[in-house]
Amino acid sequence: MVPRSRTASGELEGKILTAALELLAEQGSRALTVRGIATRAGVAPMGIYNHFDGKVGVIEAVWTEGFDRLSTAMEVDETLSPLDALVACGRSYRRFAHEHPAYYRLMFMEQLDDFTPSPQGAVASGRSLQILVNRVESAQNAGVIAAGRSIDIAQGIWAAVHGWVSLELLRVNFALDADDAYDQLLQSICRGFRDS
Prior knowledge:
Layout: H1 9-27, H2 34-41, H3 45-52, H4 55-74, H5 82-99, H6 101-109, H7 119-141, H8 150-169, H9 178-195
């Protein structure tokens, strides 16, 4: 009898996460069921439970990886001026959303009633906000952003760019040149906080 080869654990987990991302991109979060993910990944449903403790574990893994990727994307050239670094951070956020729409959809645009991030997941999501807070504080220290609670300013900036990017991904964008219009938005945001 020929022994059956087993798929390496990391490879199997990668197949499961890829399958979840594909389903999310094609059909939205409602497609993220144990059976649906397992079928797409070509694994037994028990593999989802063995490696991720079920559907919620898969969602958490994709969600956390998305925020890790976003945090990496938001790290910009440290030699830029504080204001230019803040603008570059905003551009990186938009680029991430366009390059990874399935992650972005799960992280920011899908209502997941049965998912609450674990403490580790919350830490992963908080890293990207902290990067923006750090950029705001650098700009405040340089005198190009008004004094105030940096977390509040960062939240306002995030809300503005998130609104633009989300509408753009939903194809609700009427700008003749979306890149130029987005850059104008970033400049306006920075001016607004400078003048406050």
